[in-house]
Design a protein that fits this description.
- By secondary structure, this protein is of the alpha+beta class.
- It is 38% helix and 22% strand.
- A five-stranded mixed sheet has the order 5-6-1-7-8.
- Strand 7, helix 6 and strand 8 form a beta-alpha-beta unit.
- Helix 4 packs across helix 5 and helix 10 packs across helix 11.
- It is globular and about 65 Å long.
Length: 360
């Protein structure tokens, strides 16, 4: 009987990354409840927090004011993205020493396919252990690692023993592990789908396994094949070291609502400049511009336009997009700009235009 070939996948997740960088760089922050994000006296949110702060129930995306009420002695630190990016780049160089198949998901996590690695006799667990030790020695930060035969299970494994975890899910353990998992923990099952499943009496992977592929197709259409596989611990997605960027966006929340149409347009123009610069850094051009507006009452709208040419610093287009939206009549708490329909070809004119704005 032939033995099935399994990939060897490692998921590395840096523990409390932003806060850990702050504690590394500022000794007075060590062993203290550190919150990276907005001021507790603003409308900011928690970007991340140290494990000392998490003991008080604080978590990412929580309003800073609420975090302050939970832990008044917490130290609030403004983000230093250049420092986080530098640490992330160093970590990615470490990954490259083990395998070329690295798929970064964000600054603080990545998948590695070490199936072809010969170091440590090809043991993915020993490779993960060595990566963790190298990151700690060279970068001064702690990582957790999950090891398994596919991306889905490797990511779940990296969460099992945080912080400083190392957890292995073998091919023999995978199906049983998936059976016990709540459906909202499965890759590709969001809140809406999870609620639909629960209404159908599907609460765990085991429940999901009891449905035939035909029944899943009846309820969930084209996603059925993925659900059929994933509840059996099967995930065919490869580690992709050439991920395509689908969109580039920036947004800002104001400490005080703004209501002037001219001021809102100025902020949108500034956000568009930032988004175009991010796209240029990735050597991308965009054909679709989307504007997001959240009003004082939390009502949120988006307006998009796809152009026959690449998006540039088009003040007139921004004016067109905010027509009939209530801008200038109701105060605004958040603005955002997203560029999509991205292409890899750059327009020289836009580079010159970006240089002008940057110099200005």
């Amino acid at each position: 009987m032939a033995v099935a070939h399994h990939r060897k996948i490692i998921h590395i997740d840096m523990d409390a990354f932003f806060a850990a960088v702050e504690q590394r760089d500022s000794p007075q922050y060590r062993n203290q409840p550190i919150i990276v994000g907005g001021s507790p006296f603003s409308r900011g949110v928690v970007a991340t927090c140290s494990y000392e702060a998490r003991q008080y129930g604080i978590h990412s995306a929580m309003p800073s004011a609420h975090a302050y009420r939970l832990c008044p002695q917490a130290i609030f630190v403004k983000p230093r993205f250049e420092a986080y990016k530098a640490a992330s780049n160093h970590i990615r160089k470490i990954f490259a020493a083990y395998t070329e198949l690295v798929e970064p998901l964000s600054l603080d996590e990545a998948y590695l396919d070490v199936s072809a690695a010969e170091i440590f006799q090809g043991s993915a667990t020993l490779i993960a252990k060595d990566i963790k030790a190298t990151i700690k020695q060279q970068v001064g930060l702690i990582a957790s690692a999950g090891v398994s035969y596919n991306k889905f299970l490797a990511k779940l494994a990296s969460d099992m023993d945080k912080p400083d975890g190392l957890y292995l899910i073998t091919p023999a353990q995978g199906p049983e592990f998936a059976e016990k998992l709540p459906v909202n923990k499965f890759h590709g099952i969001g809140k809406v789908t999870a609620a639909k499943m629960q209404a159908l009496g599907i609460h765990t992977g085991k429940d999901l396994r009891e449905l035939s592929l035909a029944a899943l197709q009846q309820y969930f259409g084209k996603s059925a094949a993925h659900y059929y596989d994933i509840c059996r611990g099967v995930d065919h997605r490869p580690v992709n070291n050439h991920r395509v960027t689908k969109s580039v966006g920036v947004e800002t929340t104001f400490q005080q609502d703004i209501s002037s149409r001219e001021e809102i347009l100025r902020h949108l123009q500034d956000l568009l400049e930032q988004a175009l610069q991010k796209a240029a850094d990735k050597q991308l051009s965009a054909y679709t511009l989307t504007v997001k507006i959240k009003f004082h009452n939390f009502v949120q709208i988006t307006r998009s336009r796809t152009l026959p040419h690449t998006v540039t610093q088009a003040y007139g287009l921004l004016e067109e997009l905010i027509k009939n939206t209530g801008v200038g009549e109701s105060s605004v708490r958040l603005l955002g700009v997203t560029l999509s329909s991205l292409q890899g070809e750059l327009i020289e004119q836009r580079f010159q235009q970006m240089d002008l704005f940057r110099d200005f």
